Automatic annotation (TrEMBL):
Pfam family, one: DMT_6
Protein name, entry field: DMT family protein
Leader sequence segment: none
InterPro entries: DUF486
Keywords of this entry: Membrane, Transmembrane, Transmembrane helix
Coiled-coil features, chain-numbered ranges: none
Transmembrane segments: 34-53, 74-90, 96-111
Domain of life (superkingdom): Bacteria
Length: 113
């Protein structure tokens, strides 16, 4: 499997954990004290880091730091939109499309040679 694909796969998995750590508590723990939500989120974030650190180390063998960052941002939006719509029951807005198009521009500029 190419390095960029290994990196993207690990970053996708990492991002699922990150998204739940950052936003999942808003739905499931909104009646609990913030400290409980923070501690639980840190526990979830541990799994994010256990995937993200190896992803970035693997990716850095062929990608620049800027390329890794833009890849992460694209993956973040790709994970966040379904999470927001399906899990958090938020409406799908055209703003996600516009943000995605802006990120495509970032991908072009960071990956061109």
């Amino acid at each position: 499997m190419p390095v960029w694909m290994q990196t993207a796969a690990l970053l996708c998995l990492s991002n699922v954990f990150m998204t739940f750590a950052w936003y999942g508590h808003l739905k499931t723990l909104n009646s609990k004290p913030w400290l409980i939500a923070a501690l639980l989120s840190w526990g979830i974030a541990l799994f994010e880091y256990l995937l993200m650190v190896p992803a970035n180390r693997i990716g850095y063998t062929v990608l620049s730091v800027g390329q890794l960052k833009i890849m992460q941002e694209v993956i973040t939006l790709a994970i966040f939109v379904p999470f927001s719509v399906l899990y958090m029951q938020q409406p799908l807005k055209l703003d996600y499309l516009w943000a995605g198009l802006c990120l495509l521009g970032a991908v072009y500029f960071i990956f061109r040679n």
